[in-house]
Amino acid sequence: MIELLMSPKGIVLGLIFFLALIIYWQIFDLIQLLFMNEPLNKTSVVLCQLRGRQLSGWVSVLPLLGLLGTVGGLFDSFNGLAHGDQAVLSTGIAEALLTTQLGLTSAVPAVLLLIFCQRHCERFLQETECIDVQ
């Protein structure tokens, strides 16, 4: 496993990990803005919605990076299969599965947290519109 992370192919794993770290840092900052700071106003909620849309674009990149690692791992596997090298074959399959798993397991919770934040923003804006009408 350590050999995989230290190899040039480990760059995809590093990219997924680094991007996921940045995304979750921004999501938790967004949650803090929505739930733990001063009372919300319409401007801050609209800014949070825009930030959430931007983050959802970055979250959609995570599974694509996982797919990139999968293709690279499968390419190595087929190359090892052609040369009869079982070590390269198993390492390529491990890389393909690991990058796919890492891309998906980092993207799915981020999507759920962003949906939670977006619903909170929408609910706040609907409540303020109801109050403004009355």
From TrEMBL:
<feature type="transmembrane region" description="Helical">
    <location>
        <begin position="12"/>
        <end position="35"/>
    </location>
</feature>
<protein>
    <submittedName>
        <fullName>MotA/TolQ/ExbB proton channel family protein</fullName>
    </submittedName>
</protein>
<keyword id="KW-0472">Membrane</keyword>
<keyword id="KW-0813">Transport</keyword>
<keyword id="KW-1003">Cell membrane</keyword>
<keyword id="KW-0812">Transmembrane</keyword>
<keyword id="KW-0653">Protein transport</keyword>
<comment type="similarity">
    <text>Belongs to the exbB/tolQ family.</text>
</comment>
<feature type="transmembrane region" description="Helical">
    <location>
        <begin position="55"/>
        <end position="75"/>
    </location>
</feature>
<feature type="transmembrane region" description="Helical">
    <location>
        <begin position="96"/>
        <end position="116"/>
    </location>
</feature>
<dbReference type="InterPro" id="IPR050790">
    <property type="entry name" value="ExbB/TolQ_transport"/>
</dbReference>
<dbReference type="Pfam" id="PF01618">
    <property type="entry name" value="MotA_ExbB"/>
</dbReference>
<dbReference type="InterPro" id="IPR002898">
    <property type="entry name" value="MotA_ExbB_proton_chnl"/>
</dbReference>
<feature type="domain" description="MotA/TolQ/ExbB proton channel">
    <location>
        <begin position="55"/>
        <end position="129"/>
    </location>
</feature>
<keyword id="KW-1133">Transmembrane helix</keyword>
